[in-house]
Amino acid sequence: MAFSIPDVNLASLLPEIVLLAAAAGVLLFDGRAGRRRAAAVAAAAVASSLATIPFLFRGAGMTGFSGLIVKDDVTLVFLALMDLAALGAIVLASGGAADAEEGGELYGLTLFALIGMHLMAASRDLLVLFLGMETLALPLYILVGSRRASRDGMEAAVKYFLLGSFASALFLLGLALYYGATGTAGLGALSQTPARPSLAFAGLALVTAGVGFKIAAVPFHMWAPDAYEGAPVPVAAYISVAPKVAAFAVLLRLGLSLPGPDPGFWTQAVLAMSAASMIVGNLAALRQSGFVRMLAYSGVAQAGYMLIGLAALPARGGEALVFYLLVYLFMNLGAFAAAAALERREGGRLQIEDLSGLASRRPLFAFALAVFMVSLAGLPPTGGFFAKFTLFKAGIDAGQLPVVLVAVVMTVVSLFYYLRVVAVLYMRDGAERPEIRPAAPLLACFIGAAAVLTLLAGVLPGEFIREILAAFAPAAL
Amino acid sequence: MSLEHVVGLGIVLFAVGAAGFFIRSNALVLLLCVELMLNAVNLILVGFSRYLHGTEGQVFVFMIMTVAAAEAAVGLAILVALYRLLRTLDMSRINLLKG
After folding, report:
1. Is residue B96 part of a domain?
2. Burial of A285 (0-12, 13-18, 19+ CB in 10 A)
3. In a domain, B34, yes or no
4. Cβ contact, residue pair A185, B78, below 8 Å
5. C-alpha distance from residue A327 to each of A111, A118, A245, B16 (Å)
6. Which of A87, A228, B18, B36 is the most buried (most CB within 10 A)?
């Protein structure tokens, strides 16, 4: 019997192999000094993965494992976004307070999750996608529960874990039905009409639901506020950005694999999820008094905005989505970094009221936080404005006017809670508030860089969009 | 035994697991429900694999079993830590986080 060795092409997974080696190595470090060394090694590994991307960009792309892994330009852009998010999370974690008994695990698990996200974005096969999703999810469950002495932390971890594994089971049922309908788990089968269309569509719907959990889109958002609030702030920052990037890479791949531009059931489902996320997320965020919980619901709403990009496929929706993700990365990581800097050492969570009068005591810090809030609200001259603008324009061009109208109305609603933070910062007297420790130098630099990039994306959006457009040029067909 | 029997049984088992996930409140039982759902999917995959005369579906099952084992390990670790802290696994009584 003839046996041919499949074309593996390990080089296509070289960055992931480097990350894996670093993640395994980092677990060996122990104690306070080890923790610092672990952070350096983890950051170096992520930076090396990031550094390979410019060399591959606009190249022929890389294919490995007989087509299971494909790294084309669009994938590379998503990989760059994830690496940036991981780098940010590592910086945040190294600047924050840590338990004495904690070693390098925090960074190791961050890297394991990053490998899973890389696999998700690069896979062209539902099974590899599932393995990537689980490689992402399992370390995150542990990270959320990394404060074992905290009741909130453990409650968040168990809720996140149970709902997450339920979502994985839904995804798997979708995979099984898709396999039954098409005889393969490859996404290439989507472009032809399958032998049993209803079975394939049911499978696709369940797969979308499983991935929708990762972006915290309504109705799969229940875990987000609890997990964000209970998790250590750097972990919450990571969960709020990186898995969203990976899941949107997957959803974009699904959307581009579907045949033709006809607004089928998939687009309808995406539109429904988008509108529901915007409405539920924004209205719930209005009622929050905790800063991180408010950011969690704001994240649900932001996922709703981004879903508009998917409904505008295969036209300009993809570019708009990636640009939005890029700006979201800066402003959301920045906002969480501010929360990490303000996190009180003992007792209680950061409330919005705690920010009272910060502008008079820490003017630069308050200004950076105000930039993030204004950008999240989508007001000029910040990147958030142009990100929303391109996204809404793509939606209107694709004929999805109703959902864009919902988005515009909800953006107005969101002004109330984002600008409330700015108002508390600048217009409230906070003399009786507890003194705030100055942020660690690295953390302060990070917040400053995020604020500058958020502003730059608003002043020079063309520079940011150009590279993204270049990535999508061949994919537009 | 036809495809409908195998897949039908799988769907019923999956539905039992999903229903249990929403009805029961003990975290350990919820974990069991998720495992039941995963194994129901395995059954469906094997059924389709036999029907399609392919081996892919059977390979998937091994991957899923591995992931399910890893998931159980992480989940049980979280549950043990939770029980040590709160002395209960009743999810209806674990509600410190609200809003």
Report:
1. no
2. buried
3. yes
4. no
5. 23, 20, 12, 43
6. A228
Q: For residue A63, what is the enclosing H or E element?
A: strand A62-64
Residue at A96 is within a domain: no
Alpha-carbon distance of A354 to A363, in angstroms, equals 15
DSSP label of A197: H
CATH of the domain at B37: 1.10.287.3510
CB contact under 8 A, B60 and A127: yes
**Domain housing B71:** 3-86
Q: How many CB atoms lie within 10 A of CB A3?
A: 4
Query: Which site among B7, B25, B82 would you substitute to test the A interface, given the most A Cβ atoms closer than 10 Å to its Cβ?
Result: B82
Residue A385 lies in a domain: yes
Interface of B to A at Cβ within 8 Å reads: 7, 10, 14, 17-18, 21, 27, 30-31, 34, 37-38, 40-41, 44-45, 48-49, 51-52, 54, 56-57, 60, 63-64, 67, 70-71, 74-75, 77-79, 81-82, 85-86, 91, 94-97, 99
Q: CA torsion angle for A384, A385, A387, A393 (degrees, to 10)?
A: 160
Which sign, positive or negative, has the C-alpha torsion A186, A191, A196, A201? positive
∠ CA(A148), CA(A333), CA(A341), 5° rounding? 60
Kind and range of the H or E element at A399?
none
Q: Among candidates A467, A117, A70, which has minimal Cα distance to A257?
A: A70
* CA A32/CA A341 separation, integer angstroms: 20
CA distance A78 to A319: 11
A369-394 pLDDT, tens digit each: 999 999 999 998 899 999 999 999 99
d(C-alpha A404, C-alpha A378), whole Å: 14
Give the number of domains in chain B.
1
Please tell me which residue of chain A has the smallest CA distance to B97.
A226
Rounded percentage of chain A residues whose pLDDT exceeds 90: 54
The answer to the question of residue A68 being in a domain is: no
Report pTM: 0.93
Which of B64, B70, B97 minimises the CB distance to A172? B64
Q: Please report the pLDDT score of residue A474 as a whole number.
A: 56
Domain that holds residue A477: 260-342+350-477
All residues of chain A having their beta carbon less than 8 Å from the beta carbon of residue B96 are 151-152, 155
Does residue A349 contact residue A476 with C-beta atoms inside 8 Å?
no
Q: Are the Cβ atoms of A183 and B51 closer than 8 angstroms? A: no
Please report whether residue A50 resides in a domain. Answer: no
User: What pLDDT, in 10s, does the model give residues A100-136?
Assistant: 556 688 899 999 999 999 999 999 999 999 999 999 9
Q: Is residue B74 part of a domain?
A: yes
Residue A351: Cβ-neighbour burial (10 angstroms; 0-12, 13-18, 19+): middle
Is B93 within a domain? Answer: no
Structurally, how many domains does chain A consist of? 1
Least Cα distance to B37 among A329, A308, A428, A170 occurs for A170
Residue A195: count of CB within 10 angstroms of its CB: 12
What is the pLDDT at residue B68? 95
What is the spatial distance between Cα A126 and Cα A187, in angstroms, rounded to a whole number? Answer: 7
CA A201 → CA A198, A273, A344, distances in Å?
A: 5, 17, 49
